[in-house]
Design a protein that fits this description.
15 strands, Alpha-Beta Plaits, binds adenosine-5'-triphosphate, binds magnesium ion, binds 1-O-pyrophosphono-5-O-phosphono-alpha-D-ribofuranose, 289 residues, 5-stranded mixed beta sheet, 8 helices, D-Maltodextrin-Binding Protein, domain 2, transferase, alpha/beta, 6-stranded mixed beta sheet, flat
Length: 289
């Protein structure tokens, strides 16, 4: 009997913004993990993997060194740490951008305005690269958090930090000026991953793709008078084409299909106008594409 390969070592953030959605995603992939807050290393119960709970900013180094085979990490951290890792899959959560901001009302007609200025940031490498590309000489002031306070306490003229809703900038009297990069959570793989673990990773990626595909879709069922079926089905997408089944009541059919979340309301309104009734919308757990 062939030996079971060593488990895939998955690095996730120990605590912070990425943790809950990372664990939820693995769970939706059918991978059960004991809560490892104190344990720091936890085996998966029904998949050949183990989870390493690490500091977010340390994960790129662990991936490069092959201490972790893969990690769930923000692209922004991966870029900032300048470590060797392959982005295998974008995960669609923790979307944010690394931006430059200045106090509201500051005169700013392009990045040239930053020449000779002091910029506070927790992302010195990303900022340095951006300024170099733009030919701007500025003083980078590295701080590890609460960056948005820096202009208010006279520490800097501008900041470079993550922005999502923009509410932290707003509350601190700052205005977003330029975007340096856009980021979301990704699966990153080690250059040292071996073939056996790469095969486990392929299995995991297949499951994640099925979960992510399903998140954007709804399964929709409706009753349609038979003389309207053609009009209704013309409006509908489907994995192949809509399913049409006869109802017990003569003259009516049940039509089933899959609709993308962003087209959903538009299509539903048109379906009702065309004569569809009793429309049911059901979430899809997994979608094998
Ligand atoms: N406001 C936000 N909206 C969406 N995603 C965000 C936001 N802030 C951060 N992120 C994403 O979540 C990741 C983790 O952020 P978090 O604040 O939990 O850790 P951190 O303080 O950046 O890291 P460390 O543990 O190294 O101190 C970031 O690298 C980024 O990819
Ligand atoms: O645009 P917004 O939606 O307001 O989000 C942006 C804020 O979120 C992050 O901080 P976080 O809350 O993670 O705090 P931290 O500095 O302790 O990591 C980031 O560093 C910004 O300060
Ligand atoms: Mg943060």
């Amino acid at each position: 009997m062939p030996a079971t390969p060593a488990p895939l070592r998955i690095a996730v953030q120990k605590s912070g913004r990425l943790l809950d959605e990372s664990i939820e995603l693995l769970k939706e992939c059918g991978i059960k993990i004991d809560n490892g807050r104190d344990q720091l290393k936890a085996p998966a119960r029904n998949f050949n993997a183990e989870v390493l709970y690490l500091r977010n900013s340390d994960i790129p180094q662990y991936i490069q060194d092959g201490v972790a085979d893969i990690g769930i990490i923000g692209e922004n951290t991966l870029i900032e740490k300048e470590k060797d890792a392959e982005v295998v899959l974008k995960l669609g959560f923790s979307k944010c951008r690394l931006s430059l901001a200045t106090p509201r009302g500051t005169k700013y007609e392009g990045v040239q305005a930053l020449n000779g200025q002091r910029i506070a940031t927790s992302y010195p490498n990303s900022l340095r690269g951006f300024l170099k590309k733009k030919g701007i000489e500025a003083e980078i002031h590295e701080i590890s958090g609460s960056v948005e306070i820096a202009p208010n306490i006279g520490l800097a003229d501008a900041i470079c930090d993550l922005v999502s809703t923009g509410s932290t900038l707003f509350k601190n009297g700052l205005e977003e000026q330029d975007i340096i990069l856009k980021s979301e959570a990704v699966i990153a793989a080690s250059p040292k991953i071996d073939d056996a673990r790469r095969a486990i990773l392929d299995q995991l990626v297949f499951r994640i793709k099925s979960v992510l595909a399903a998140r954007n879709q709804k399964y929709v069922l409706m009753n349609v008078p038979n003389d309207r079926i053609q009009e209704v089905t013309a409006l509908l997408p489907g994995m192949r084409s809509p399913t049409v089944l006869p109802l017990a009541e003569a003259g009516w059919s049940s039509v089933h299909t899959v609709i993308t979340e962003d087209r959903f309301w538009d299509i539903i309104d048109r379906l009702r106008a065309t004569g569809a009734e009793g429309i049911l919308v059901v979430p899809i757990a997994k979608m094998i594409v």
